[in-house]
Amino acid sequence: MNQFKAEIVGVGQTAYTRGTENTESEQVIHAALEACKDAGLEPSAVDGIVMAWNDIPSNEDFINALGITDLRYHSHVHIGGASAAAAVGQAAAAVTCGMADNVLVTLGWNAYSGKHSFSSADQTESAIYVPGLKIRQNLEMPLGIFAPMQWYSFHANRWMHEYNIDPAGMRTVSLTTRRHANLNPAAYFHSRTLTEEDYDSSKTLVKPFHLFDISLETDGAAAVLVSRSSNHDKGVSILSSTEGHANYPDDILGRRDILNMGITKAGPRALELAGVTTDDIDFAQLYDCFTFIVLRQLEELGFCERGESPDFVADGRIGLGGELPVNTHGGLLSEAHVAGMNHIVEAVRQLRGDCGERQVENAEVGLVTGYGDFGDGSALVLAKN
């Protein structure tokens, strides 16, 4: 079963750094050109653009930089870290129904050196986009709740309390993704190992999050090129793409079920539309803004029941050679924070068999997820051609 007649034929990325002389526009354009080059397509042949989350550069900038002569489709997706996977779905839909032939999906920012700082207490209009800003400013900020690690701690602590969660599962996710990053030359933490002792002795920033439970802030961009299915030499089939939203999308504390997430809806739908089950997934690139979000997604996706994810990830199950390798590039925790677009790039490379030391053996079907804002979710199922 296949929801679309579309495939990803090109991927591109910049270097992932902390500190850059390039503007965000230059980062995104560079990644877009790399995706075209990877696909063997002249940039001027692009006739569609989907911008995931960040609205830089403008459509006019793309037209000028790529030499596009007939931009037939453009879209902007604003659901935080769920934007990347959802944006690929929009591109696939546009290609499938004939609105465009070659659609670039891009995402980039200077999250370390620019204005997008998730760790900053300055969560105003001049900082990052904050959903439900008036709620934050009037109800939470007066109580000292400013940063994402504080917001998500309510979800994490409630989950841990209700299901008597062993926090060792969070350590497992952190250590596993770092080991994967150590095999990835593009990863920001490629040369920096992480031991159990390092993790356990690191500072607890907001209970229950240690330093290494929280994603990186980096500068960089990534892009993928979506075209109509044609068995392209480098093509990877897009089997399905879905999005879902929490019942109270701009809030966590006001939910009747604080554990309600968009991926609870989007994940099972994506598997059903693709005609696969969790048993068919050879690897998963799961959005990992925090280690606990990886565990929670494994539960909501149906790989295990609520409360069982710490046991599920034990004994090497999510490492290379395990039953379900997770975030084989290092993820947002150890490769780079490109709001999940780097997860899609990695999934494509895994299905092509281009990942060298970190290659998943016999990879045929991969899952990518997104988690944004206060629980927006997206899922993407990809398959080897």
Automatic annotation (TrEMBL):
Domain Thiolase C-terminal, residue spans: 251-378
SUPFAM superfamilies in alphabetical order: Thiolase-like
Domain of life: Bacteria
GO molecular function terms noted in the UniProt entry: acyltransferase activity, transferring groups other than amino-acyl groups
Name of the protein in its database record: Lipid-transfer protein
Species of the source: Corynebacterium imitans
Upper lineage: Bacteria, Bacillati, Actinomycetota, Actinomycetes, Mycobacteriales
